[in-house]
Sequence to fold (625 residues):
Amino acid sequence: MAREFDAAMLRLYRQGKAFGGVYSQLGNEAVSVGSAMALDPKTDALFPMHRNVGAHFVFGAQIDQMMQNQLARQGSQMRGTDGTGHYADPALRIYGNVSHLGSMIPVANGFVLAARMRGEPTVALTYIGDGGAQVGEVHEALNFAAVQKLPLVLIIENNQYAYSTPNSMEFAVDELSKRAVGYGIHGETIDGTDVELVYETCRKAVERAREGNGPSIIETRTMRMRGHAEHDDFSYVPKDLLDQWALKDPVNTYAAVLVQRGVLSGETVKQIHDETFNAMVAAIDRTLELPWPDASEGMKNVFL
Amino acid sequence: MTYLEAIADAIKLEMRADDRVFLIGEDIGVYGGAFKLTKGFLAEFGPQRVIDAPISEAAIVGAGIGAALNGMRPIVEMQFMDFITNGFNQLVTVAGTTAYRWGIPVPMVVRGPSGGGVGANPFHSRNSEAWFVHATGLKVVCPASATDAKGLMTAAIRDPNPVVFFEHKGLYRKIKEDVPEGEVFIPLGQARVARQGTDATVVAYGSAVFMALEAAEILEKEGAQVEVVDIRTLVPFDEETVLASVKKTGRAVVAHEAVLTGGFGGEIVARITENAFRYLDAPVRRVAAFDSPTPFAPTLEKAVLPNTLAVVDALRSVLEF
Fold:
């Protein structure tokens, strides 16, 4: 679903019907889906980044609503004031990001701090990239969460490139999860293309968090298989690197595993793909028929 | 009750009445805050509601935002308002845009001591209120009296929007008033006519209100009746009260302790000239600090900051125009 949503947004972008940034999570789906599956959507809270559409779907987001939000059509949960997956849906316990990466991690801290004051078992799951992890607010937030033993799980999605900047120009440590040592919290680095491994690692982190043992950092290694956003031809990424990672494609490899285990048949896999593709096409048609939000919305709700 | 005690009183009353109200900041618990404003709070409300945080202004403001999103009413202390620069992104990028983008309230107060005149240094003396006026989505409060400080703090805590509350540290123990016991509520967005007059208006806020009142006394001896309007809150701005006064007197001086250029005084002057130009008998004058950081040595600081005589000079010039 995440993959087909991204593909649908890419088609819309190429047709000139999607504007702003279109940020594909191609190659990173296992991180979004596996991590969000480890939460309880009834009590926990999701603070996704711009490349986590899979996590939104795990938390119950609907395709039409997501399209309305992304394409800023009437029905957008942000009334057209913002787009790019920045929406919040309190009923689904999803609180989107802002473009300043890392800024929502301190906010996620406050969210679970409030829950703890009321005796609620909420765990917050949030994400940052290999680039965003270098923002000062990330450090402040992790230290604060560690001191307060807050129930927070931070996934560092290391997809090799921060826009055009490779890991080697972003940080000098071999594994970003080693920073956990400096905060006195749990940290580990895993293969982010293996959805079951992501799920299992996050499940344990959520368990630690819920039991009062504080936050965890999980670095997931993947490859960003598209540009930073769709305007970016990512010619700075060596072709053979992309070819290598393509062999580890998280969706195709997991489908093959499930077929091999006899959980799904090859026909069922194709059927799921076709149904999802068709659902996206239908949602696009419905969304593009919707009018733009009324211009007066721009002057509302600066204050409540 | 001093200005400082009045603020503490408002917070204490709200914390007793509403479990959702809690404090977070640096050295506010055991130590009771750098100015002792939260002295005794830890003992009464416990460490869950009086949280000593690491020196991490972004993490502190962010925690306030997150808690507010999740139904609480946090009061975030900046040990000095100067340090809000380290939490600026949280306030401006997140807090100020959330209602607009999401329609979800962020009922949070960020408060702390601002202002100069006490021989601090460039990093403990700034008046940065105008930055937040320009940010959009943030309410900005600058009380000048103890009663106002109490009443406006009550309103700020109950407001569904993020409020940046500038307390003037020079006023903390300087002014003592008979502040009403129990609940005092002064709505945000209502100016106060601090002194009635007919010949000229001084529009001011914060410490400049005292300069204006002293200037009015001096000019009274020279036969001029000066009205002083304390706007109390910059956002929302009570344009109506300011315009009514200027239309009555026909002459205006705008005064604040913050630096001149880009200050809120410029906005006030613009509103006056846009809406009351034909009532004016003289150009509107501004009194503000010299455009520099607030210096350390008393001689320098005195030279840079505005004072009563500067307001007197400005008033004379509009009266004699």
Notes: Chain A has twelve helices and nine strands.
